[in-house]
Amino acid sequence: MSILDASLARLDGTPGTLRDLTGGRGALLVNVASKCGLTPQYAQLEALHEEYADRGFTVVGLPCNQFMGQEPGSADEIAEFCSATYGVTFPMSEKIEVNGDGRHPVLAELVELSDEKGHAGDVQWNFEKFLLDAQGRPVARFSPTTEPDDPALVAAVESVIGNTP
Fold this sequence. Notes:
By secondary structure, the chain is α+β, with helices and mostly antiparallel strands. The protein is built from 5 helices and 4 strands, in the order H-E-H-E-H-H-E-E-H.
């Protein structure tokens, strides 16, 4: 079974799978939070989503409240904040756990991948990024402080788009 088939509801509670959120396209999965010092990355994530959406790519936000309670809001509050503050149009999942016993199954596979600094294992902080190809295979992992417009991240996205059937 592909991680794309893992059950993952949308932020509004609509049941579905990761495949439903990615649309079967290459995707950058990002654990997001509204009250983090890295929250301004939402603007660059939206720009990345807009730039590559027509070429078979999407960003998917995975809200998580495991890091110092920096995503305390309800689904409606998260959606309103993201839309009103950063104009976010990319899909968002329900709030999930990325570490520990409650770690979502999607993340269980992704955390085995090493980031550009050699870190594998638990998600370190909000805004850690995982790049998947259209088949749901993990391709790259980027640390929370890697900006969405970082040349290495953009090159990785372009390589995924280039490999989309």
